[in-house]
Design brief:
Blueprint (H helix, E strand, L loop, with lengths): L1 E4 L1 H7 L11 E6 L3 E7 L19 H20 L8 E11 L8 E12 L2 E10 L2 E13 L1
Antiparallel strand pairs: 1-2, 2-3, 3-5, 4-7, 5-6, 6-7
C-alpha cells in the first residue's frame, strides 16, 4: 500500500534520533509484510570525516542499521493496536552481503520483507538499492520486548 510517512511520523515509532536515525521517508507499507523506505545520504553525515577521507563511503554497519530501522515498521504496523507502550527492539544480523558502496548524494532505497513474523520478534530479508542497483542484502532477526 502506498503511504507517505515522513520524518515526524518515523520519529514517533523509532527510538533512534540524530545522528543515529537512518530512515528519512517510507513510501510503501504492507502491515506485517513489507516496507519500502529511503535514506538520503549526505556528505554532512559525521561519519564521512573518517570513513574514508577523500573517498567517502557509508559504513556497512550503518547500512545494516538503516535496514533494521526500516524493518521495525513491519513489526510495528502489524502489532501497533496491541501495544501499550513503545517496545524495545534487539537486533541480530544473520547474514549480510555488500555488493557496491553507498556514497554522498546517493538515495538508499530499502526494501524489507517478512520471512516470519511473531508477537515477540521477526525474521526479515532486506535489500538495499541505489537507483536500480542492489548494493547490500541482509537477513535480520530481531526480538521485541514490550
Amino acid at each position: 500500500m502506498q503511504v507517505n510517512i515522513d520524518i515526524e511520523e518515523i520519529q514517533k515509532v523509532l527510538p533512534q534520533r540524530f545522528p543515529f536515525l537512518f530512515i528519512d521517508r517510507i513510501i510503501e507499507l504492507e502491515p506485517g509484510k513489507k516496507v519500502i523506505a529511503f535514506k538520503n545520504i549526505s556528505i554532512n553525515e559525521g561519519y564521512f570525516s573518517g570513513h574514508f577521507p577523500g573517498n567517502a563511503v557509508m559504513p556497512g554497519a550503518l547500512i545494516i542499521e538503516a535496514m533494521a530501522q526500516a524493518s521495525i515498521f513491519i513489526y510495528y504496523s502489524a502489532y501497533k493496536d496491541n501495544l501499550q507502550e513503545m517496545p524495545k527492539y534487539y537486533l541480530g544480523s544473520v547474514k549480510s552481503r555488500f555488493f557496491h558502496p553507498a556514497t554522498p548524494g546517493d538515495k538508499l532505497k530499502i526494501i524489507a520483507e517478512t520471512v516470519k513474523l511473531l508477537p515477540t520478534g521477526a525474521f526479515v530479508n532486506v535489500k538495499g538499492f541505489v537507483e536500480d542497483k542492489i548494493i547490500a542484502e541482509t537477513d535480520l532477526v530481531f526480538a521485541v520486548k514490550t
